[in-house]
Amino acid sequence: MSNAAIAALASPWKDLWNGDLGITGQMVAEDFVAHFAPLTGTGGDEFRGREALNGMVSGIRAILPDLNFVIEVGPIADDEYLVVRWKARGTYGGGFPGASPDATGRTITFTGTLRIADGKLAEYWLNADSLLFSQQLGVRQVPVRG
At a CB cut-off of 8 Å and minimum separation 6, what does 146 contact? Predict the structure, then answer.
């Protein structure tokens, strides 16, 4: 796959996060894995598969219904890898555990990076600024379950 073809995957990634869940099968590998630090302190630190990715996108869009993703840097393509730096902005509509009731209506922003291998999204390390995200929601203490 050429670097130009790899770089062309950046736009569908942005479209997916902007709510086009129907394109997941075209750009995400069946054995997709995402690694992340859960904001609530519950659950694992990874999820697997296309449906899990769609669930994550849907969940974030549920609390930030006007969420809009833009690509700030990239795409940078090299052999089988693609890197982009994105920024997301949306208005908090409520529903995040521990968030202040006063947070509803606040504009929330966060960023992250992406890697694609073998022509499809195969693995993702979410590096969004979880502290900034929580601060923007007025979270005083994130519930931790052991």
Answer: none
pLDDT digit string (tens) for 18-71? 899 999 999 999 999 987 765 555 555 788 999 999 998 898 888 888 988 888
3-state helix, strand, coil in the chain (%, to 5): 30, 35, 35
pLDDT in tens, 16-30: 988 999 999 999 999
Domain count, the chain: 1
Looking at residue 29, which CATH number applies to its domain?
A: 3.10.450.50
Are the C-beta atoms of 24 and 50 separated by less than 8 Å?
yes
Could you list the residue range(s) of the whole structural domain that residue 18 is in? 3-136
Peptide bond into 75 cis (omega under 30): yes
Model pTM score = 0.73
Closest to 112 (Cα-Cα) out of 90, 91, 94, 130: 130
* Degrees, nearest 5: CA angle 44-134-54: 50
